[in-house]
Design goal:
Blueprint lengths: L2 H5 L3 E5 L7 E7 L2 E7 L5 E5 L13 E3 L2 E3 L6 E3 L15 E2 L1 E4 L2 E4 L12
Antiparallel strand pairs: 1-10, 2-3, 3-4, 4-8, 5-6, 6-7, 9-10
Length: 118
């Protein structure tokens, strides 16, 4: 693990292969459940596991491109920002992730892009 990761309290999640392509895993943290997603292109994103609409578990949604569809009401959420796709409005807090040598690390501090980090 790099010195930068140790300094910022990154959490080792596991291997990239622990998450199926177009799938997700839930990580329980002190700040709540965080869904870690893997795209078809092996990009990794992390969002609060709570849809901004009715709180549905985003980790159980369908990943397509860089979006996830909430399993409750089919709201589409951008994986990179956590913002709902228009015309829907709202935001699921996003979290920094890093991939080093096929190992996923998560920083359990929400990004500033989501109002109130909901």
């Amino acid at each position: 693990m790099s010195a930068v990761m140790k300094e910022k309290n990154w959490i080792k999640i596991g291997s990239l292969n622990d998450i199926p392509r177009l799938g997700a895993r839930v990580v329980e943290t002190d700040v709540g459940n965080i869904a870690v997603f893997r795209t078809a292109e092996d990009e990794v994103f992390a969002l609060r596991d709570k849809c901004p609409h009715k709180g549905g578990p985003l980790s159980q949604g369908i990943v397509h491109g860089k979006r996830v569809a909430c399993p409750l009401h089919d709201w589409k959420i951008h994986l990179d920002t956590g913002m709902a796709v228009a015309p829907d409005e709202g935001c699921a807090a996003s979290f920094p992730v890093k991939l080093e040598d096929e190992v996923i690390y998560l920083l359990p501090v929400a990004s500033d892009g989501c109002p109130n980090n909901s």
